[in-house]
User: Fold this.
Amino acid sequence: MTFAERMLRIDRRIIFLLIGLSTLLPLLYPVGLAIKISPEVRGVHGYIESLPEGSVFLLSLDFDPASKPELYPQAVALLRHAFEKNLRVIGMTLWLPGTGMADQVITQVARERGKVNGKDYVFLGWSPGGSSVIINMGQDLYKAFPSDYYNQPTKELAALNGVRSLRDVNYVVSLAAGTTGIETWYVFGKDKYKFELGGGCTGVIAPGLYPLLRSGQINGLIGGLRGAAEYEVLIGQKGRAVAGMDAQSATHFAIIALVILCNVFYLFIRTSRGQTGQRS
Amino acid sequence: MPFEALLGAWVATGLTLFIFTFLYKDNPLFKLAEHLYVGVSVGYTIVKAYDTVVIRLIYEPMVVQGDWSLLIPLGIGTLMLARYAPKAAWMSRIAFAFIVGVGSGLAIPRVISSYILKQVEDTIRPLVSMAQGGALAFSTNILDPASNLNAVVLLVGVVSVLFYFFFSIEHTGPVRVAARTGIVFLMIAFGAAFGYTVMARMSLLIGRLTDLIEYADPGYGRPSLWLLLATITTLVVWSLRRRDEHPPEG
Assistant:
């Protein structure tokens, strides 16, 4: 067996170890590689930046704990930005398993910024129906959510003063890990009730959302951990996402190197087999 | 540090390490974590759904606030349960008919408008622009999504991919060229999707490793280190016992 053949039959656990080390070492010893801001992330940031104080910002946390590493840092960065701009924040989720986590992130960032529940922000929680919830909110927000997550009647909350339906919301951002998510918010929300919509998503679903971005159906897109890191840089508060970027780059480099090596070994085997065939 | 934070750190670290042991091979620690994940997720979903739907959206408005009109949707919804009784199963069709009818009515116009009309509108862009003074201009900046060059690329991509999926005629001559071009565009799209998927999966690994590093802190009692040691020891003992029970042949 030649060296190339042995390499192509290598125990896959060695590859797992290599990838693990490529991720772990930069996390332990970061080098701080530069992070370039993409126009799609700037789109979301720029729109929030342009909103006047007291505007209504709805953040729909449409993900569950399985997507936490990518979308939680996005939620933290967006909430910090919104609270810093003194926007009235409405939090909610269309994903039932993510309800507790969504409440945790909003409460944590609000406490960090000294914001009061019911006055500066509100967390509506989850309501069944997915797209029907959005349609319902477009007609009457108080019918879709008669009470918030803490069972306070929504009609009595100061944070919702003057908000009757989605038409009174200035900006909606859906942080989505799949459907129900950004597309649902566009199809059943923005297209009908004419509010501005931005999105944040996991890396897996990002390529499928670019057509919405290019056609102007959403005005910005934060894609994966990389997008979260860009947002953290934009608001000048580096957090978990920025810390993970060195590891991300190192892992990608390792994967590219492994793909190239595999192809070289494969070509080498094919060439040597071809030569052996010609000789015989 | 509060007790619940400490407990959370130890449980999260243990379950993360147990799941990672699958990279070595399938083992009881992985199975324990996997079953716990499924059980806890289902339990959480049932409790939250019961609290939100049955208590907050049905019981409280009807019994506390006296809104008995909710009996209509409740009745239609309850018909779904008729599927469990073979003799009354036909009644569930009423509920399904309602759901399919309302769902289709709501979705079809919106989906056509959002996914087809808007996307077609964005695909059909002018291939040349009108510059100042009425002269025609062709912008070649490949990095600008709105440039004329990108409009041409978009048009070629859409048409050639449509040709690839056109199975009514044989792919020969110019049709073959167009279909082959379509394959190139499809490969680029698959490559981009795969690249994003790799990035996403690595982000998940980064997330877990970041937590493990955080929980290696003495403030938490170093659960990452102690549980890593315990996990490795358990795996070694399990492997040795398995070897004794099923010795390798030959």
User: Anything to note?
Assistant: The mean pLDDT of chain A is 93.
